[in-house]
Every structure is written in structure tokens, then in C-alpha cells.
Inverse folding.
């Protein structure tokens, strides 16, 4: 195409040059005025044809560029008798325009697909720009808030002032839980936000998910689990108390004698009654201790945040438990990714978690040959500080892994040295107060690892 266009220009320029030389020769050497006039007219016509030839190309190119500029791909590029020199040019322009049409069609199809997904998804979505204007809101969000007249973030103040404030303050990657009331209905919202830039403008995409049903289900399951454990523990204490009180009543009724308005018991019966009363006293104190443990579980203090060294924290734990380690012959190891690792948390509460987990590990290692306990600390791939407590004990059964964090649940059975069953639950609550998590991984007959993630 370019070669043919260049050849067309070259031929026209050569013809114009020859005509000009011939005209110059006739003017200087002859007096053929008619021929000179003819050549002048021919020269003018050649110049006009050359200009038209170039302008046709410019017009086609201008049309092509304007079509791209305004995304107007409805026009066609056909020859319409412009000559073979323009045929290939028109065909090339037409191919490019067809390609643009195809690409735009794909983008429109993709956009329609995304719009369908956004509108169909069950999670409420809004997108706001830097000025707080809502540029996108899906049907789920409109249904959730019972309003379709939401234009800006301030519009949410009509629903809930806390909701508008949360959306405004929530940064990209942030998450918040919020309880609000909409049309006399309680909503437990899990709100997530992400930020992005498009064409130099900042946007924030916010999702809303009502987790009220899930929370109610989990709450019911939690209450059922706690009720089962409470009933089990209380019955363990009440049953012997009821049995022994009945026994005492029977002994007094059958073996007592009444003399001078006094009830007399023989030494053997008095001893049996005394032993039964001592047992009732111990079980009553055990029940009181259990109730006090429950009260402690429900009254966790607010964390007092400080910056402190993880190395020093683990050193204190080792020093506190040193006697127990030596008594059981446990080999203790500490592995730190860096000696300068620090935490921003409540050192007293975190220390309490580590003591609870260490005591659990000590109980697990009592019947293990070559017992080992390892403390590991560092930063994981998510950039979060972690502390691992790993023992090579018998491990935790798979069916118990889901229950060990239930308050008062214990895997120790009838072990007289078993704890109250609230240590792990308390530890997990403390980690949640710190915005972290307490997780467990166990391989039977190999190891158990508790991980504190901050």
C-alpha cells in the first residue's frame, strides 16, 4: 500500500517536473505561445491533481483517527472510485476499524458480565470515589439497607451514623463488625474495604455481609456446648453430695439413739458421718472453685499495651517453669528468627497465655521418653509476629481438636491433676482482644503445636 502510494506521488512529481522543464524551454527558446499556454494550463492541472491526491489520503487518515478518537466505528472505508492507489489504504483502515470493533465488543461483553455478577451477588457492594460519591451500588446493598436513594456516604447517616462513620474511616484491607438496626431489624454487618486507582482517580470498594443468622447459629452451638460442659461438671459434684447426704440421713435414722433429749451415735457411725461430711465439704469447695473459674473466665481485663522484647518474655517463662522442667527432665529449646523481635501487646496477659500453654505441655509430657519443649518466635509470610509452643507429647485426638477451646472442656478425663478447663478458652479470648488468634496443630504420637498469631 505504501509503495503504491509513493509510486503515485513520484510519477506525478516527475510528470510535473518534465512539464515545467518543457514550459521553461519554450519560454526561453521559442515563441510558440499556444503551446506555452497549453503547458501552463497542464502544469496547473497537474498541481491540482497532486494536491487532491495527497488530500484524499489526508482525509482518509483524518477520518480514521477521528473514528478512533471518538470510538465511532460505525463508518466504513470503501474505495468509491478513488483508484487502485487508495484501495489497499481503505482495506487497511477497514481491517483496523474491524479489530477495534471486535475489541470493544469484548470489553462490552466483559463489562456486562461483571455488572451481572456484581448485581447478582448476595453480598452488598458499594464503590465510592475520593469525594465520597457512590459510583456503584448493587441490588443486594439496596435490599440490605432498604433504600435505593443512596448517592453519597453521608446518605448512610439516614440509616445509621455509626455506619456512615465506619465506611468513611475504614481503610483499604480493613475489616469491621458493626451492629445496626434497619427497619426494626437487627443487622450484624461484616464490613470489608479495598482501595484501588483507575485513570488516576482513587476509589474504595466496600462490601457488606449480614452475618446475623450465622452468629445466632454459632451462639446457639456455643451455649449448647457450654451448657453440656456445665451440666457435666456440676453433676460430677452434685451426684456424690446428694448420695452422701442420703447416706448420712440413713445412718442417723438407723444407728442413732436418743437419751435425755440428745441424739447419740456410736463411734463407728460418727466416723462414717464425719468422713461423709468431709467429702461433701471438699466437693462443695470444688464446686465453688469451678464457679469462681467461670466468673474469672467472663471477666477478662482490657489489655494494657506496651512494646516489649519477645526474647525477654520467653526467658521469663523459662525461669518461672525451670523447676518443673528439671523435675520432669524436659529439654527446652528457644528458636528466634531475630534477637530484636518485639511485640506491642499486654505483657502480663501474653505471659499468662504462655504459662497456661506450658502447663498443658508439662501434663502432656509426663509419660513421654526424652520429653522436649520448643519455643519458636518470628515473623510469618503475612508479616505477623508469631510464637509457637511445640511439645513431642502424645498429641490431641482429631475429635478433641474442635472442642479444646470450649470453656471447661478437658481432655484429661479423670486425671486428678487436670486443670479447670478454661485455660485455652481464656487464652483464645485474650488473643482476640489483641486482634490476634490462637491456633493448634497436632499429630498423634508425634507433636502438638500451639501458635499465637498477633
Amino acid at each position: 500500500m505504501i509503495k503504491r502510494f509513493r509510486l503515485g506521488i513520484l510519477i506525478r512529481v516527475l510528470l510535473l517536473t518534465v512539464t515545467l522543464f518543457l514550459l521553461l524551454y519554450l519560454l526561453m527558446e521559442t515563441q510558440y505561445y499556444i503551446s506555452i499556454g497549453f503547458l501552463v494550463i497542464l502544469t496547473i492541472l497537474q498541481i491540482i491533481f497532486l494536491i487532491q491526491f495527497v488530500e484524499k489520503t489526508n482525509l482518509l487518515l483524518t477520518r480514521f483517527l477521528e473514528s478512533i478518537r471518538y470510538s465511532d466505528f460505525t463508518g466504513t472505508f470503501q474505495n468509491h472510485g478513488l483508484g487502485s492507489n487508495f484501495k489497499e489504504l481503505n482495506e487497511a483502515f477497514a481491517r483496523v476499524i474491524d479489530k477495534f470493533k471486535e475489541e470493544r465488543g469484548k470489553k462490552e461483553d466483559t463489562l456486562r458480565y461483571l455488572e451481572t455478577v456484581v448485581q447478582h451477588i448476595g453480598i452488598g457492594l458499594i464503590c465510592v470515589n475520593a469525594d465520597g460519591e457512590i459510583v456503584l451500588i448493587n441490588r443486594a446493598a439496596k435490599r440490605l439497607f432498604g433504600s435505593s436513594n443512596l448517592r453519597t456516604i453521608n446518605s448512610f447517616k439516614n440509616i445509621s451514623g455509626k455506619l456512615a462513620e465506619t465506611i468513611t474511616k475504614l481503610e483499604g484491607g480493613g475489616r469491621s463488625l458493626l451492629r445496626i438496626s434497619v427497619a426494626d431489624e437487627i443487622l450484624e454487618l461484616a464490613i470489608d474495604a479495598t482501595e484501588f486507582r483507575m485513570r488516576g482517580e482513587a476509589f474504595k470498594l466496600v462490601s457488606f455481609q449480614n452475618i446475623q443468622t450465622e452468629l445466632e447459629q454459632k451462639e446457639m452451638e456455643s451455649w449448647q456446648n457450654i451448657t453440656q460442659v456445665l451440666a457435666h461438671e456440676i453433676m460430677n459434684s452434685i451426684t456424690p453430695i446428694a448420695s452422701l447426704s442420703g447416706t448420712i440421713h440413713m445412718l442417723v435414722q438407723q444407728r442413732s439413739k436418743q437419751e435425755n433429749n440428745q441424739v447419740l451415735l456410736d463411734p463407728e457411725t460418727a466416723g462414717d458421718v464425719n468422713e461423709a461430711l468431709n467429702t461433701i465439704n471438699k466437693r462443695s469447695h470444688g464446686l465453688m472453685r469451678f464457679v469462681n473459674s467461670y466468673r474469672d473466665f467472663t471477666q477478662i481485663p482490657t489489655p494494657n499495651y506496651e512494646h516489649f522484647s519477645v526474647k525477654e518474655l520467653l526467658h521469663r517463662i523459662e525461669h518461672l517453669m525451670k523447676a518443673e522442667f528439671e523435675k520432669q527432665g524436659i529439654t527446652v529449646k528457644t528458636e528466634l528468627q531475630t534477637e530484636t523481635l518485639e511485640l506491642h501487646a499486654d505483657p502480663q496477659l501474653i505471659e499468662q497465655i504462655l504459662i497456661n500453654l506450658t502447663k498443658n505441655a508439662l501434663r502432656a509430657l509426663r509419660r513421654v521418653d526424652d520429653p522436649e519443649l520448643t519455643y519458636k518466635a518470628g515473623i510469618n509470610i503475612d508479616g505477623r509476629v508469631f510464637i509457637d509452643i511445640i511439645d513431642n507429647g502424645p498429641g490431641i485426638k482429631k475429635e478433641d481438636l474442635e472442642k479444646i477451646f470450649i470453656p471447661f472442656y478437658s481432655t484429661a478425663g479423670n486425671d486428678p491433676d487436670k486443670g479447670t478447663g478454661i485455660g485455652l478458652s481464656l487464652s483464645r479470648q485474650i488473643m482476640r482482644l489483641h486482634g490476634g488468634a490462637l491456633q493448634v496443630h497436632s499429630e498423634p504420637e508425634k507433636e502438638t503445636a500451639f501458635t499465637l498469631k498477633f
